[in-house]
Design brief:
Elements: E1 5-10, H1 21-25, E2 33-37, H2 48-64, E3 68-73, H3 77-87, E4 92-96
Helix pairs in contact: 2-3
């Protein structure tokens, strides 16, 4: 079973402009951590539940592949991380705000 650590980074309101965050996180592979910059789509005209479902679907997929999954939420992404954790507690290794 694969126990590679996979972090899902949930950015704040300006997620459509990563300001190099997406590139910086790629350096984490040097520490054995794969980071996915997950654009939540805060500006999209859709309910939060749809945004949350995309996050929980990603958690479900990664854990089904044997990955150790953690969440990192920045700014407004922290609220998304808390909500995703509430729905998938058993599947999340760590959560950072």
């Amino acid at each position: 079973m694969n126990k590679e650590h996979h972090v899902i980074y949930l950015p704040g309101i300006g997620d459509h402009r990563p300001w190099a965050q997406d590139k910086i996180f790629k350096l984490w592979h040097l520490f054995g951590v794969k980071v996915d910059y997950h654009q939540i789509g805060w500006a999209l005209n859709e309910p939060f539940e749809a945004k949350l479902k995309r996050i929980t679907d990603k958690i479900d997929y990664l854990t089904s592949q044997g990955f150790l999954v953690s969440l990192v939420g920045g700014s407004a992404g922290s609220s998304a991380a808390m909500n995703a954790y509430a729905k998938r507690k058993a599947k999340i290794a760590k959560i950072v705000f």
